[in-house]
Batch of 2 targets.
Target 1
Amino acid sequence: MIAHSLPDPVFGPAQNLHGATYVVDAEFQRPELNQHKIVLDIGLATDLLKEVLAPLAYQNLDELPQFKGELTTTEYLARYIHDQLVVALNNSFQGSLKVTLGESHVAWASYQGPVS
Amino acid sequence: MIAHSLPDPVFGPAQNLHGATYVVDAEFQRPELNQHKIVLDIGLATDLLKEVLAPLAYQNLDELPQFKGELTTTEYLARYIHDQLVVALNNSFQGSLKVTLGESHVAWASYQGPVS
Amino acid sequence: MIAHSLPDPVFGPAQNLHGATYVVDAEFQRPELNQHKIVLDIGLATDLLKEVLAPLAYQNLDELPQFKGELTTTEYLARYIHDQLVVALNNSFQGSLKVTLGESHVAWASYQGPVS
Amino acid sequence: MIAHSLPDPVFGPAQNLHGATYVVDAEFQRPELNQHKIVLDIGLATDLLKEVLAPLAYQNLDELPQFKGELTTTEYLARYIHDQLVVALNNSFQGSLKVTLGESHVAWASYQGPVS
Amino acid sequence: MIAHSLPDPVFGPAQNLHGATYVVDAEFQRPELNQHKIVLDIGLATDLLKEVLAPLAYQNLDELPQFKGELTTTEYLARYIHDQLVVALNNSFQGSLKVTLGESHVAWASYQGPVS
Amino acid sequence: MIAHSLPDPVFGPAQNLHGATYVVDAEFQRPELNQHKIVLDIGLATDLLKEVLAPLAYQNLDELPQFKGELTTTEYLARYIHDQLVVALNNSFQGSLKVTLGESHVAWASYQGPVS
C-alpha cells in the first residue's frame, strides 16, 4: 500500500500524489525439480519477498532515495522488485523469475527475466 | 487509487502517507422487483457510483476539505461513499444499499444501511 | 450459456437478442446443523441444481414456454431458479435459500427466500 | 454479452442459438519499456479494446456479416479480436499481444501473436 | 491444510482419510465504528485468527483430542473456529462474527453468531 | 481433496500427515486451430481430466502404490497429472499442455511440456 505521483503529462490525473495497493506474485521456473521435488522452498521464497517489500510498504515512494528521479510505474516497480529478489536469492536458485504486480482486478504488470 | 495517512498511533506504519487501490461494489436490495423486473437500472447505478467516486480518484485524501480532521479508514470511506450514493440516487430507489471497499484479496470493509 | 432479449426500452442495446454466461451459486442456511453435522448433502444440492438448470442450458429463453411474456432479467432468473430449486428439494430441507447469478466479475443478482 | 450458434455436430447442444458473457483481457509484452517507463498507455489500450468490442456487444453474431460462414468459437473470437486490435493500434505499439476471452471461471481461450 | 476422515456412510468416498486446504475468512460486524473509526484492529484480528488456526495447520484432525468422536465437516469446523475466536477476542469486541471456510472455488461453509 | 505427508526435513510441519484441496487446470496450446475452429473438444478434455483425477480424489496418497517412495509435492503432482493426461489423450492432440495445481489463492505449481 504505497503513495506516489507520476510527474509526466502522459499520466493525466495520476500526476497527482495518489496511491495503490499492489498484490505481488513471484513465479519461479526451472527445467527440472531439485532433489526435494520442488522448484524452490516456498517458505524461503515468501520470506525473501517479504524482505524485499518491507522497505516499500506504507511508504510515499516519492520520498525514497532509491526512486529519486524515476517514474515509479507499475511496470518499473515489477522490474525493481524482480531485481531486488534476484539479489536476495543470493545464488540459491537458478532459472527464471516472473514478478507480477496486481493493481486491481483489471490491471497488472509483470517483468520476467533469468536468475543465474 | 488514493493516497492518505491515518494519524492515530493505533495504525502503526499506516500513520505514514501511503496509498490504496479500492475496488468499490454497490449492492442494492429491495423486497420486490420494479415493473421492469429489475432491482435498479444497472447503467444508472454504475453512472452514479462513478459520479460519487470521481472527486476521490487519484487524490491525496489528506488534502480534500470533506475529510479534514477525519480518519479516512476503509470503514469510514465505505460509509462516506454509501451516504453520497444515497444523495445521488435522489429518491429514485427505495430499499437497502451495501457498499463494499475491497483493499486487496484479503481485506475489505462494508457499510449497509437503508435508502428511503 | 443462454440467449435472450429484453424487449423493454429501458434495456437499450439489450433489447437485441444477445447472450450471457451465468455462474449459479446456491447458498443454504439453517439455524442448526443436521445429525450428520452438515447443512445439506452437497452432492444432493449439486445434483438438484444441475437438474433445475438443465432445461435452460444452451437455450434461447425467448423460445421457452415458461418465459413467454416475461422479461428474463438476471433478477427474474435468480428468483425463477430459486423457486424451481425449492420444488426440487421436495421437503428434504427447511431453512433459507439464496440463489446468485453471476453475469461477469462486476455484475450479479441474488434472490433469497425461505424453504419450508 | 453475445448470442450465437455453433452449427457443427461436434458442438452438441451448443448447435442451438445460445449466448455467452466474455470477459476480454489484452496483455501487451515488449522487451524494454518506453520512455515513460510503461509498456503502453493503459488508457489508450482500454479505449482501443472498447472500440474493437463495441460492434459485438449485445449482438447475435450469427447475423453479423463479418462472421458469415464462420464457426464463432471462443478460440476464433480470441484471434478475431487480437487481429482487430492490431489494426486499431495503427503502429503505435511493437511487441506481442495476447487476447484472452474468459467464458466462465473454468473456461477460457487465448490467442497470442506479434504486433509489428 | 488438514487431513481428516468423515466416518458416516452419507459422505461416500469422503469416509476415507483425505485432506483439504481451507481458506478461512473472519468478518466482524458492529452497528457503529469505534473511536478509531474502525470495526476492529485488523492486525489484532489477523493475529488472533492465526493463533486459533495454528494448532490445526498441517494436522490429521482424526488424531486431535478436541475432535474425538466428532464429524469434522466444513460446517462443524466453521463453528469450532468461530467459537475459538470468540474466546480469543476476550471481550475486546462486541458485535457479530461470521467465519467462512472456503474449500475450493465452488464450495464453502459459514457460521455466524454474536460476540458479547 | 487428498491426504499425504512429505517425509523430508525441508518440509517442516508438512512432514505430518495433512491434506490439500487442489484445483486442477489444464491449458492446451497449438499453433493453429483444428477444422472445427477449436484447440480441442473441451468436453473431451474435461472427461479425460476427470478420468485422470478419479483415482486420486479423496485418497491418502501415502497409501497409493504409484507414489511409493515419492515426495508428492505440488510440483511432482503437476507433472504426474500432465503425464497421465498425455497418455489419456492417446494421440488425439498434438501441441503443448500445461497443468496447474492451485493449492490456495496464494500458492500454485505448474508443469508444461509437449504432447506429441
Target 2
Amino acid sequence: MAAYRIGVVAPASRMSAEVAQKVPALAAQLYPDRTPEIVFHPQCFASHGHFAGADDARAEAFLAVANDESFDAVWFARGGYGSCRVVEAVIGRLTPVARRKAYVGYSDAGMLLAALYRAGFASVAHGPVAQDILRGGGDAAVGRALAWMIDRAPQALEPTARGARKTAAFNITVLSHLLGTPLQPDLAGHVLMLEEVGEAMYRIDRALFHITSNPDIRRVAGIMLGRCSAITPNDPDFGMNEEEVARHWCARSGIAWLGRADIGHDADNKVVPFGAGA
Amino acid sequence: MAAYRIGVVAPASRMSAEVAQKVPALAAQLYPDRTPEIVFHPQCFASHGHFAGADDARAEAFLAVANDESFDAVWFARGGYGSCRVVEAVIGRLTPVARRKAYVGYSDAGMLLAALYRAGFASVAHGPVAQDILRGGGDAAVGRALAWMIDRAPQALEPTARGARKTAAFNITVLSHLLGTPLQPDLAGHVLMLEEVGEAMYRIDRALFHITSNPDIRRVAGIMLGRCSAITPNDPDFGMNEEEVARHWCARSGIAWLGRADIGHDADNKVVPFGAGA
C-alpha cells in the first residue's frame, strides 16, 4: 500500500522552516511501519509582506496540491492572516480530484474551510496545523491532525464531534468576517464551536453579537465555546468573562448554549470535522 | 422661537464629565443670540463595566430622549463600544416623534445610525460626538456637529455630501460587524465613506475583504476612504498602506474607487448625512 501523502500549503502567513524538519520526524516516530509522506510546498517558506508569498503564488500552491491526485490530504501550514485573499481564486478552480481529499486547519484557515464546506467538500476539519509542533506539547497537537487525516481516528476528535451530530468550528473573528459573504456556509442544525486568541473582551463581545445576530447562524443546533486565550487588556475592565459573554448572546439570540468545547489556539486543540464527519 | 434642544446620550462608553461643561460653553459662544439647550442625560456619566451604564439603562436613556417631543436632536456623547448591545431594544420602541429628530455620531454609534437609517429615519448623520471637544482643535469638530444639527449648514458637510449623491459613512470595523445582520442598511447607489482608528493593517485589509465581498455592499456607487489613524504595528510589515488596501479590494470586487473622504477619528471629521441628506 502506498504511503499516505499529505501536501502542506500556507495560504496565509509564512511557516517557520524548522517545522519542515520536526513534523516528518514526528510522523516517522508515530507511524514507523507506514510513515506518511509529508510534502511542504516551497510556497510555505516564501515571503511577501505579511504573507507566505503573493496572493497568486499562495493560490497556485493551494491548487497545485489540492488538484494533484497523488495527495490524500491538504494540510494548512499555519494560520496568521491571508486566506481571504486567495479563497475566491482557489474555489473557482478546484477539480473533482480536490473533493476526495481531507483538509485540516484552523484560525485564519477557517475562511477556506468555510468555502470548501459550502462547496460540498466532505472531509473538511478544524484542527491543528503543522506549525503547532512549535508549541509546548505541540507533538500531541500534530499527532492529532495526523491521526485524523490518516485514520479518521476518533480519539483525535473533540468529544461532541464523536457522535452523530453535525459539527463545525471557527475562530470567532474569522467567522465574523465571513458572515454575509459568499463564503458563509449553511450551518443549520450544526453544533457550532467557537474559539479565540489575542482579542480584547469587548471585541469578543462585539464579534459574538455579530455572529448570533445573523439569521442563518440562528439556525444552528447550538453554540459551544472553546478556549479564548491571550485575551488582551480591556480598558476599563469588561466586567464579564468570555463564557458570560457567550451565554449572554446565546440567551439574547435564542441560540442554545451547549457549554464548553475542547478547541483553542493551543496544543490541546481537538479535531472538529465539518458536517456529520465522525 | 424656542431654543433648539439637543439631548445627549451614551449608548456605548462613558462620557468624560468635563464635556458637559465645555460643550454648552462653546455653544453659547457660537450661538449667542439663539444658544441651543444641550441636555446631557445622566446616563452619560453612569458606569457599568465597559459601558456607560447597564444595557437596559443605556437603552432607556436613548428612548427617553428620542421619544421626547421637546428634543430636536439626539447627539451621541461618544463612541467606544456598546451600541450593538442596545440597538435591538431601542429600534423596536421608537415612536413617530423619534423620526422627526436629527441623530449625529460616528464610530461605535454606527450600529445605531445603520439601524435608524434602515428604519427610514430621514436625518441620520455620521459626524462629531460631544466628547470630540476634548481633542486638540475639538471646538471645530463640535461646532460642525452643532451647525449641522441646528442649521443643516452645508459648510459642516464632507464635500461629496454637499452634492445630490446619496452618501453614508462608517467606521470600517463597525460596518464589518453589522454585515449580514438585521442592522445592515440598503446602501445601493450610495457613496460609501469609510474610516478607521487603532487597527493593524491586516485587520483593515480583512475588514475591507469582508465589506467588499458582501453582495449588497457591492451595489454602492463607490467607496471613498477617510483617514485611518493610529494604525497599530503589523508584524511583519504589511507591505501596503490603507489606500493601497482599499484600492485593492475595490478592484477585486468591482466597486468604484472614488478617492479620499474628509472623515476620521479626529478634529477634522466632517458631517456625512445618510441618504440624499444635503
